[in-house]
Amino acid sequence: MPESKQKASHPERTAPVHQPESSANAASLSVFAQTEQYAEAAEALAARLSIPFAGVAAQGTEVGLLLSEDGLSLCANGAFLRADLTAMLPRLTQRNLAAELLVRAAKVKGDRSTMTVVDATAGFGEDSLLLAAAGFHVKLFECNPYIAELLADALKRAAEHPVLSPVVARMELVKGDSIPALRAMTVPPDVVYLDPMFPGRTKSALVGKKFQLLHLLEAPCPNEEELFAAALAAHPRRIVIKRPVKGAYLAGRKPSFSLTGKAVRYDGIDPASFGGA
Length: 277
Prior knowledge:
Blueprint: E1 30-33, H1 39-49, E2 53-56, E3 63-68, E4 71-76, E5 79-81, H2 94-99, H3 101-105, E6 116-119, H4 126-133, E7 137-142, H5 145-158, H6 165-168, E8 171-175, H7 178-184, E9 191-194, H8 205-215, H9 224-233, E10 238-244, E11 257-260, E12 264-269, H10 271-274
Parallel strand pairs: 1-2, 1-3, 6-7, 6-9, 7-8, 9-10
Antiparallel strand pairs: 3-4, 4-5, 10-12, 11-12
């Protein structure tokens, strides 16, 4: 359903964490290739990430990034997780977009085609895709280097898709921490979107396994106050925050409004009425 933001390949949005260091659980991460055809690119990726290249079809690592004909995947113990924006296609129709709570929460006065959204916690980019499909120009920040590579690979594949290509053309990925970037912005974005990772309640064991894979790389946001303060410092017209339906307000700040679905809640803060930074 549109309002629940459920995905076929990874049902809850996999949001990034604002911490310079990668999770300690990712210390043993390495890169391997499915076949010799992808070995050179996989080795280059390993060098870029400063982690070992484990060779072709290597199985000697508990956690790894696999480069194959399907793209880049995070894998461990027989489970695989790949960012796949094509799974979002049913939600990108005009009718479904209009029903998306995120799109409704981000709605501010004016022409969306001239508006910029900063997705400060990009994850696998599904939420940014919804916003870009709704007409916004979206700048995505992802500070975890492994998640950023998975997202970059998904965007590259989406750019070759006839339907997704014009949408991802409005999406710009920045591999880095959004907190200093938000504080340094001289041109205020129209909207800042925050989705700190939170433990999702799931009905599927498969979903749980995929969340466990992501938690090998990173954990829930450790400093909500800092993230929220950075968003305010950018002086946007609106801040939109994704939370669990019954979750506490981010950094304890009461929103200007909330839109609640079956699985998540979107809290909107208009800094002008909130009192600014």
